[in-house]
Amino acid sequence: RRYGGAAPGDRTMLDSLWAAAQALGTLRSPGATLLPTLDAAVQSAEAAAEVTRHMEAGAGRASYISSAELRQPDPGAVAVAAVLRAVLEGLRG
Questions:
Q1: Domain residue limits at 40
Q2: Over the stretch 48-64, which tens digit does the pLDDT of each residue have?
Q3: Rounded-to-integer distance, Cα 55 and Cα 13, Å
């Protein structure tokens, strides 16, 4: 928010990043392992990206467009989820 002005809930890539970061935070828990935690982070990011479909844009380019025109999930949020999915699949081999 300090640099870009966006925060989770503003219908930006931060929505997916925030959701993934929250899930990745569980890696600090005893017994947590990377792949299951990353899988949970990917699922969280994908779910958060889908939720942006129903959000009003508070920052980014979408904030200049009428909410009635925004019928798709935020492209940045979808891209973040896709990159995380690719990382997970790459680690799984």
A1: 13-92
A2: 999 998 877 666 665 55
A3: 13
Answer for the pair 88, 24: CB distance below 8 angstroms, yes or no. Answer: no
What's the domain count of the chain?
1
Q: What region does 9 belong to: left with phi over 0, alpha with psi -120 to 50, or beta?
A: left
* Alpha-helical runs (H) found in the chain: 13-24, 34-51, 75-92
Kindly indicate the confidence band of residue 7, based on its pLDDT and cuts at 50, 70 and 90: confident
51 in any annotated domain:
yes
| Residue that is written with structure tokens 């990917």 in the block | 42
Residue 3 lies in a domain: no
Can you give the pTM of this predicted structure? 0.83
Is 8 among the domain residues?
no
